[in-house]
Amino acid sequence: MKKEIIISYRENNTRVALVENGQLVEFYTEGESNTRSVGNIYKGKVKDILPGMQAAFVDIGFNKNAFLYVDDIIRNDEKKEYTIDQLLKKGQDIMVQVSKEQIGTKGARVTGQLTLPGRHLVLMPYNNYVGISRRIEDEYERERLKDIADSIKDPNMGVIVRTVAVGVSKEELEKDLDLLIGLWNNTLENYSNYQSPSLVYSDLDLVERALRDLFDKQVDHIYIDNPEQYRKISQILKRKSNHLMDKVNLYQSKRPILFQFGVERDLEKAFQRKVWLKNGSYLVIDQLEALTVIDVNTGKFVGTDNLADTVVQTNLEAVKEICRQIRLRDVSGIIIVDFIDMLRETDKELVLTFLEQEMKKDQTKGQILGITKLGLVELTRKKVRKGIYNSLQQLCPLCTGMGKTMTDFSIKMFLQDKIRNYIYENGKKDLEITIHESLEEAIKEEIQSLEDDLDITIAIITSDNVEKNYLSIQ
Fold this sequence. Notes:
The chain is an alpha+beta fold.
């Protein structure tokens, strides 16, 4: 599989794309209107204790207070059960880390279980165990890495060994750990010196996070269009991973880099509700407030003479695109997939097994919960940051997110009642109504009929800057 990282860098906007076999699978953006806070550590102040929810609101300097759940607070005795008001007091300072971005009306989610990620290791200052990435499946390598981690870690701290640590020497892991402990000591110093609320540790910028989190041995090339950032990446790799230097390329063409690699094309499709597959079938993806629903349809695909085989082929083709779209759109929370009905149990098992394999390519943790009695497949995916649905889109000012408008017939029906009620309440004979310009011809007969019937005069004002359902009466 060909794997590339494409980086478009501007002073006020950075975009990173992960491309697999020529297709966009992950997209990240950071700029003036889309800053990231996940991973940052703050000196916060407890503003409210909520005993009924066993949680607290913490001021970390955002426009909305962050939410801290009782199980996310560090305690001296992990075996003992504590209530929120036993652990925290209103007005006290506390060190917390953002675990989920502030989205919409919901404030950020924070935790006291702090982590500092490095290239090969993740430092856990307030835990004391060794974890090995679930993506490392070789038992011998897992044991080797666990033994090294146990031997080099601080007795009072914990570490998680990341997937990219496979085959890495003890010396390299020690270097990574020393760097993380230095960052932690600096964080503690900032916490002691700063007033709350304050930022005491900031995670890396998007370019450096791409190197840390995306750039593994499977990546064939990195392309970046900014000379200064190219030199910065080169310097980082010389210090930490000199063997990867040959994979970094400075893109110098006048054509925008995202167009050159087809990223813009795939990104535009990611905003569409209907996604066509290569075999002629298609997906319909609806991202709602509580969950995301994905519907699989055969579309133009007629398949073979055997209906059951056609159905399973369509569903297997859909699985690949569903997993790609989930990663690309960064869909999180509850996901419901309505595959085309399969009668054979072996076909259901085949599709679920393939779905599990494809989901393993995703860095964000997901889980298949199974098939419901209605034949729907239930998934969950960890929510960490805003997906492109929230970060690059906004509610339509005309339909305010509904996605549909009323029919001309229903608008005319309600129009009559609203005008009659307005006259009843205000007693006016000369009215002025404002409507969308597309309705002017459709309601002329209704307006004439109302004028004759009620002995009134109605002036029509049209506008193209209102939703089609809009009606104002004066």
